Amino acid sequence: MHEAFIGNWTRQSHLSPEHLASVRGLNRRFLDLAGNGRLSTALAAQVAPLSPAQRAAAADCPYALFDLRFADDAYWRGRLQTQGAVRVADESRSPEDTVDFVRVALFYTWHIASSADLTAHLLLGMHANTAQAFRRVAVDALPALALAESPNLSVRWSGCHAYWNALMSAASRPDPGALRRVQLSGLQLAAAAQLPSEPREV
Asked: Which end of the chain is more exposed for a tag (fewer CB within 10 A), N or C?
């Protein structure tokens, strides 16, 4: 069943099964962190009651459920240009499991940004310039970067409570079709986030 579901996402999103399996695993670890109260307390209250199978089902999205300011191109370009050596003073006091997650997430980000395709954009919402900046980072700089960036770990689309309520609610029910519809709506959120803001009238 899982293989068929991954295959469906692959056909629809043009992402490889390997990338989808990796982001699914990261999503699952992220939901475990969220369920332990490491992030939003509101989300923790929704994730904590879910069984391991329900969390895995919720995590099975063709995009990341977590965010590390990936859409903030100016932040990451500046951060990575001056990042030669992250100072000890920059290191966070985040819990060890949070830092461990961010370390894995940044390594995966570096890995997919190293390719010239749109994988980082599709999975993470990452700007092309940010992906280019990640390509220039040495892999041995990632552990220190994870220590400094772990406070930036957050829920993707944190302001869209309707999405998260629907995702957690659908994951808790034995209705795979309803869950898939919610997960597909996340693709709409990802696309909407890439649209330029409308100019305001003066």
From this structure: C
DSSP state of 175: -
β-pair partners for 67: 154
Bridge partners, residue 1, by sequence? none
Determine the longest span between alpha carbons in the chain, in angstroms: 54
Q: Are 101 and 163 in contact (CB under 8 A)?
A: no
Give the C-alpha separation, 143 to 145, whole Å. Answer: 5
- For 129-148, what is each residue's pLDDT tens digit? 899 889 889 999 999 999 99
Paired strand residues for 155: 66
Scanning 60-158, the segments in alpha helix (DSSP H) are 73-81, 96-113, 119-124, 128-135, 142-149
The answer to whether the beta carbons of residues 98 and 150 sit under 8 Å apart is yes
* pTM for this predicted structure: 0.86
Q: How far is 13 from 187, CA to CA, in rounded Å? A: 9
CB 101 within 8 A of CB 29: yes
Q: Would you say 109 and 120 are in contact if contact means Cβ atoms under 8 Å apart?
A: yes
Strand partners, 66: 155
The Cα–Cα gap between 72 and 8 comes to 30
The number of angstroms, rounded, from the C-alpha of 97 to the middle of its chain's C-alpha atoms is 16
User: 117: closest CA among 104, 135, 139?
Assistant: 135
